[in-house]
Amino acid sequence: MSRIDQLIAEHCPDGVPFLKVSEVSFKSSNIKWSQVGVEKYRYIDLSSVDRSTRVIGDAAEINADNAPSRAQQIVQFGDVIFATTRPAQMRWTVIPVEFDGQIASTGYCVIRPNTEFILTNFLAHLLDSDRFRRYIELNQVPGNYPSIPDNLVRSFEIPVPPMAIQIEITSILDAMTSLQAELQAELQAELAARRSQYEFYRDALLNFNDSNTPPWKSVRVSDVASISRGKVMSKDFVRDNPGTYPVYSSQTQNNGIFGYIDSFAYDFESITWTTDGANAGSVFYHEGEKFSITNVCGLIRTTNPNQVSTKYLFYQLGYRAKSHVQAGMGNPKLMAGPVGEITFPLPELVEQERICEILDNFDALVNDISIGLPAEIKARRQQYEYYRDQLLSFKELAA
Fold first, then answer.
1. Which of these, 109, 117, 114, lies nearest to 155 by C-alpha position?
2. What is the CA radius of gyration of the chain?
3. Are residues 83 and 229 in the same domain?
4. Helical packing angle, 163-207 and 310-320, nearest 10°
């Protein structure tokens, strides 16, 4: 029998009470900027908290004259803050001592644990659990910026075991979290080194700048490929015309998949790129799949496969497209015209295939989630999450 099992048998053999977060915590207070003098504060906005490390990074210095309208909530050391905008991203942290008395965005739910009933880090681990994630997904308000009301976060029911059990579990999870962070940092450093190595070889292979390399001719994309745009498809259209094949858009969640339909599907080897927004110039390769794209994506298909390999063109565009993105009214764009004007060296087909084979191997090592370091990072994270959720599972005490 484990130490935790012994404690449960001793203190709560019949189960533990499940209470709302609001029953074991307090709310924060808001700052009154009209009563503030020249004092300066550090501002925790929604982008300040790193979703992986839970560390508060860039926090702008603000005062009564330049404070954003959402800079309202005074936080204290030990507060747990959870982002209620795009809540499924699970952006949360515990306020460290150096941010005691500073200001957080109203985009956070600020939870001040009542430590007579619940430990700060025990509550934090509960809000990182898969059970809370499922609760968020069921209760968030959909939209361009999904959100969950503050009161629903506080209505989440959590197990509140005796303090001795909380201390034991928190000690284990804190140690596991620290070890997980160290291991992930090591793997991320290794992955960054591999990516730098990959970029070095990619640049050399795709530039043909070696003095011993034959002077291959340069061609424009429009010389060797057809270029078109995706279809205008609203969320309502995709919802009302469900199907099997993915529709890609410029969104970043769900691997860019906007929904699934059966109409307008392509089924040939091709390249797509994102034309608008923060991801403009991102390039994707498609082989052996049926898919559709919205009007914020473009489609490229080689006109003579015996002259240019689609995979080779994909690698060349992946290397060059971002440098052709144009900023316009705060919305970056890379439209079909500029894409067609991108030039690149075109060696013989056998040389293109040799280059693609090398880059495919590097790409698989660096980016394929099923092998290599990314898979190791994912496996470590899944192992930690499994044990965390097991430790936080309790039998509920009957009323």
1. 109
2. 26
3. no
4. 110
Does residue 241 sit in the same domain as residue 185? no
Q: Are 302 and 357 part of one and the same domain?
A: no
Q: Are 384 and 176 in contact (CB under 8 A)?
A: yes
Structural domain ending residue among the three candidates 311, 326, 346:
346
Q: Which of these, 72, 107, 76, 106, lies nearest to 94 by C-alpha position? A: 76
- The pair of structure tokens assigned to 244 is 């099997």
Bridge pairing between strands 103-105 and 41-44: parallel
Cβ neighbours around 281 below 10 Å, total: 22
What is the pTM (predicted TM-score) of this model?
Answer: 0.65
Residue 39: C-alpha distances to residues 58, 75, 397 (Å): 19, 16, 49
149/147 Cα distance (integer angstroms): 7
Contact (Cβ atoms closer than 8 angstroms) between residue 256 and residue 248: yes
Do 144 and 208 have their domain in common? no
Residue ending a domain, among 160, 181, 205, is: 160
Q: Are 55 and 93 a contacting pair, CB within 8 Å?
A: yes
Number of domains in the chain: 3
Amino acid letter, residue 373: L
Say if residue 173 is in the same domain as residue 138.
no
Task: Give the pair of three-digit tokens for residue 280.
Answer: 């403009």
At 305-359, the pLDDT tens digits run 999 999 999 999 999 999 999 876 667 889 999 999 999 999 999 999 999 999 9
What pLDDT, on the 0 to 100 scale, is given for residue 252? 67
Domain of residue 12, residue span: 1-16+163-213+349-399
Q: How many CA atoms lie within 13 A of 373 on its CB side?
A: 18
pLDDT tens for residues 225-242? 999 988 888 878 888 888
